[in-house]
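Moderator note: this is an archived Q&A kept for reference. The question asked for a predicted structure of one protein chain; the sequence and the answer are reproduced below.
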Amino acid sequence: MRFLNLISLVILTAGTLAITQTLTTSEAANHIGEKETVCGQIVGEHTASNSQGSPTFINLDKPYPHQAFTLLIWSEDRQSVGDLPKTGRICASGTISQYRGSPEIVLRDAHSWYVPR
C-alpha cells in the first residue's frame, strides 16, 4: 500500500512540474535546440500561400517583423494541428529552433499546443 501511495505522489508531482515549467517568449531564445513549452500572447497570423509548403506563422507577444516568438505550421500539418485561437494566450511544446534570428516551434499536431487557464 505504501508503494502505491509513493507511486501516486511521484506521478502527481511530475504532472505538476510539467504544467508549471513554461518559458516566456523572451526566455525561449536561450533554449534553442531544447524541448520546452513556451507561452505568449497571439498578436498576428499570416499564411504565406505563395511560398513552398504554404507555412502559417503565428507571432507571439510582438507583431512581425519584431516578433518575440513564432509558431510555424506547415500546410501538410494544418489539419492535424487543428484550429488555433486568433487571439489570447497560447502555449506550445516542442523543440525550439531559430529562423533568421527569431525563436520558433514547429507545430505538428493538436497535442503540441494548448490554451492556458
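Archived answer notes: Residues 4 and 10 are 10 Å apart (CA to CA).
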